[in-house]
Amino acid sequence: MRTYDLSPLFRTSVGYDRMARMIDALSSEQSNGYPPYNIEKLDDNAYQISMAVAGFAEDELTLEVKENVLTIAGRKDLDEEAEAERVYLYRGIAERAFERRFNLADHIKVQGALLENGLLHVKLVREIPEEMKPRKIEIATGKAKKIASK
């Protein structure tokens, strides 16, 4: 795996700590592919993560957003005595614990989650604050007047 030295970029940048942490996390992340998931763009400001969580009940799944990182985790509460009595001829359904992290861009909010037919659907929406939206500035005509500053 190739490594990149991004220290020259961060020497002249202020406030990009989150991006540096994200790049570090991405470079060290080793994914096992479980559980599989899709990320869809529904429109310009809406996204959806769909994750295959067959065998997990709603109360065995947790979603948490902290510092622009969405964490989806699943923990199976197995009855060890009942599991010991089961005899599998083939066991292809993975019910092991998992934790997946998704880095969210600024202003992306989790709108809700739905567990349906073994898929967990997480709706995400970009909510751009009013002060960051483009706005039209009116141009006055006539004599030059002093423009009041806020």
From TrEMBL:
The keyword ATP-binding does not apply. Keywords: Stress response. It comes from the Bacteria. Residues 28-142 form the SHSP domain. The keyword Coiled coil does not apply. Pfam families: HSP20. PANTHER family: PTHR47062, SMALL HEAT SHOCK PROTEIN IBPA (PTHR47062:SF1). Belongs to the small heat shock protein (HSP20) family. This is Hsp20 family protein. It comes from Hwanghaeella grinnelliae.
